[in-house]
Specification:
Among the domains are: 73 residues, Arc Repressor Mutant, subunit A (Orthogonal Bundle), CATH 1.10.10.10; 148 residues, Glucose-6-phosphate isomerase like protein, domain 1 (Rossmann fold). By secondary structure, it is an alpha/beta fold. It is built from 13 helices and five strands. The relative contact order is 0.11. Strands 2-1-3-4-5 form a five-stranded parallel sheet.
């Protein structure tokens, strides 16, 4: 079960309570919980009518949620949201208002950079350094690392696999050709000591959740990259990193998620330079051989007493 660490926007008593309510309360109230968890900044600026509309619920459900949390209706909930997030501003709401007021002027690069910066700032607010370090350590210690993502997360899953391959052991992406059925086949041998890195952004895919449950049943460690504690992966994972995806025009933004992936790779790469990382040494051997031709190669574990096998002269296509 996910333990939310200190020093994140989700650490406050209000957000922790909302996350718990989201798991147990009725569907109409859960919609309100999930909306606030996905939009912890802008929710504090909304009236009860707009909050209910955007959460696709009702004003009665908003009031019932507030009362169930021990607050005096929506007034108490709104005051708690304002107190919790008074010093923070949501760039996506600002830009959304600008676009609506000046639609003819279009969408500018400056607005995109503001949105991207806001989501990247949200990564820092939503994740503690302890949790980030724990995810890095889990990836470093994994026997094999499997990565899965469908829909909008498909390409980022491939990017994560390609980036982690030189620095982690046995990295592979299971969400490639063949869809969910082939992903299940590729994940069939996952076991204790392995890691499944699941990537899911709204709209979430049920297949990712089911594959995550399968990996856990096999004793593997489950890590998640997702948008917020409202994600269905959040309740399953051993560790999760949150990447806000708010955008004023697009369905979602992937800038923050890409930033988290790059940060993980950089942290593992830097740690590997100070240790004996076999994956990195073997990857360096392969790359050097491709560029420079035959040379002495790193021995695999268990073959230290045997001479390294030197590959034959590279063909013309590799020179």
């Amino acid at each position: 079960m996910l333990l939310i660490q200190e020093s994140s926007v989700y650490d406050s008593r209000l957000m922790v309570q909302l996350a718990k309510m989201s798991r147990t309360t009725r569907p109409a109230l859960r919609k309100v919980c999930d909306f606030i968890l996905r939009h912890p900044l802008s929710s504090a600026t909304l009236t009860i009518d707009i909050l209910a509309m955007r959460a696709e619920s009702s004003t009665a459900a908003v009031n019932r949620l507030a009362n169930a949390m021990g607050m005096n209706g929506y007034t108490g909930l709104h005051n708690a949201l304002v107190d919790n997030l008074l010093r923070l501003v949501a760039p996506d709401e600002q830009v959304h208002g600008e676009v609506n007021r000046r639609r003819r002027s279009g969408f500018s690069l400056e607005q995109q950079i503001r949105l991207a910066k806001g989501n990247l700032d949200g990564v820092l607010l939503g994740n503690s350094s302890e949790r980030f370090d724990a995810v890095v350590k889990a990836l470093q210690n994994a026997k094999r690392t499997y990565i899965v993502g469908f829909g909008a997360s498909y390409y980022l899953a491939g990017l994560a696999a390609a980036s982690l391959m030189p620095v982690c052991s046995g990295v592979s992406t299971v969400s490639v050709e063949g869809g969910a059925e082939m992903a299940a086949y590729r994940l069939a041998t996952i076991a204790s000591g392995d890691v499944l890195l699941a990537i899911a952004m709204p709209p979430y895919h049920d297949e990712v959740v089911r594959l995550a449950q399968f990996a856990q049943a096999r004793g593997a460690t489950l890590l998640a990259l997702t948008d917020s504690p409202a994600s269905p992966l959040s309740a399953l994972t051993d560790l999760a990193l949150y990447a806000p995806q708010a955008h004023a025009v697009l369905t979602n933004s992937k800038v923050a998620l890409l930033g988290v992936i790059e940060a993980l790779v950089a942290a593992i790469c830097l740690a590997s330079q100070d240790s004996e990382n076999l994956s990195m040494r073997l990857a360096t051997d392969a790359l050097n051989y491709l560029q420079e031709g035959p040379r002495e190669l790193t021995c695999l574990p268990g073959l230290a007493d045997e001479p390294a096998v030197e590959l034959q002269q590279a063909g013309p296509g590799l020179r």
